[in-house]
Every structure is written in C-alpha cells, then in structure tokens.
Amino acid sequence: MSRLRNVALATGLLAFAAAGLLFPFFLVTSRSKPIIDASKPLPPQATFRGPYVNTGSHDIGPDTTTYTKK
C-alpha cells in the first residue's frame, strides 16, 4: 500500500509541475489579439506610472553625471 501511495504522489507531483511549466506557453499561444492595442491611447495609470519606473538604481544610486548637449 505504501509503494502504491508513493507512486501516486510522485505522479501527481510530476503532473502538477508539468502543468505549471506548460501554463505560460498555453497562455501565450491561446491569445489571438495582442494584450496592448497600439491604436488606442494608454490608460491614465500607465501614463502616470511611466516616468517613475526607472528613476534610479537601488544598488548604485542615480546617475549624478552631468551630460552636455551636443
């Protein structure tokens, strides 16, 4: 009984792991239209969030070098 239970558990874990690994591929191939429609304007939260995404690096800090215009 114990060996049968171990085989069933291992099979279930492998099936769960395979489903988790294949889910992103299934999600990408199942969509027929793009997620962001380029013909429409961006929503307000995307335009507000945009400038603040890359404001500085936390590991080395913001770039303090001044660059001259050419």
UniProtKB/TrEMBL annotation:
Lineage top rank: taxon: Eukaryota
Sequence segments annotated as region (Disordered): 47-70
PANTHER family attached to this UniProt entry: OS04G0165500 PROTEIN, OSJNBA0019G23.7 PROTEIN
Name this protein carries in UniProt: (wild Malaysian banana) hypothetical protein
Organism annotation: Musa acuminata subsp. malaccensis
Biological classification of the source: Eukaryota, Viridiplantae, Streptophyta, Embryophyta, Tracheophyta
